[in-house]
Amino acid sequence: MATITVIGQGTAEFNGEFSLLEALDEQGFDMPYSCRGGNCGACEVKLISGEVELIQDPIYEPEQGHILTCSVIPVGDVEIELL
Predict the structure, then answer these.
(1) pTM (whole model) above 0.90
(2) Exposed, middle or buried by CB within 10 Å (0-12, 13-18, 19+), for 38?
(3) Residue-level pLDDT at 24
(4) By three-state DSSP, how is residue 24 classified?
(5) Which of its termini does the chain have fewer beta carbons within 10 Å around, N or C?
(6) Dist CA 80 CA 83 (whole Å)
(7) pLDDT digits (tens, 9 = 90+) for 7-34
(8) Running DSSP on this structure, what letter comes out for residue 52?
(9) 70 Cβ partners below 8 Å, 6+ apart?
(10) Among 35, 28, 34, 30, which Cα is nearest to 13's?
């Protein structure tokens, strides 16, 4: 089980949910999103540490060092920062 740290909001556990966004949303985090499909970029965050695996090919291309929480799952513990 991976631990997700959201700077300024706390930590959550990843329990095999569909995406990083889904895991955080289900655990009560106020995460930005709009489409949940990688089309809009609203869920883009900065990946501070850790590694993620792409689970769907997004149309929106995040900046270098950033990820779309709707399109990835954590490989291990991760730390992210909202933009």
Answers:
(1) yes
(2) buried
(3) 97
(4) helix
(5) N
(6) 10
(7) 999 999 999 999 999 999 999 999 999 9
(8) E
(9) 19, 20, 21, 22, 33, 35, 36, 37, 38, 43, 56, 58
(10) 28
